[in-house]
Write a structure and sequence with these properties.
- This protein is an alpha+beta fold.
- It has helices at about 5-20, 40-55; strands at about 20-25, 30-35, 60-65, 80-85.
- Strands 1-2-4-3 form a four-stranded antiparallel β-sheet.
- The longest helix has 14 residues, at about 40-55.
């Protein structure tokens, strides 16, 4: 059986690999980003940098990254990355 449009299968895969994130901005000095382990550190840092600049700060400084679920092996599943805005 030949697929009529293989692109239909490629788009969900691309969305999965791109990763999504949720941002907590309650504290103006810190940003916490929830993201998948598939999301690159650079992409997460760039998101934090944008948020910090929106808050009038010049830089986002990486502080920590932990599993949201501590029972999972390191760097798998949902991650929480924290940045300080300076």
């Amino acid at each position: 059986m030949r697929l009529a449009c293989p692109l239909l299968f490629a788009l969900p895969l691309a969305a999965l690999l791109a990763g999504c994130n949720t941002v907590a901005e309650a504290d103006p000095d810190h940003v916490t980003i929830e993201h998948t382990s598939l999301r690159s550190r650079t992409a997460v840092y760039e998101s934090a940098q944008k948020i910090c600049s929106r808050q009038g700060r010049a830089n986002a400084v990486f502080q920590s990254q932990v599993n949201q679920d501590p029972t999972r092996p390191p760097a798998t599943g949902p991650q929480l990355s924290t940045f300080a805005c300076r």
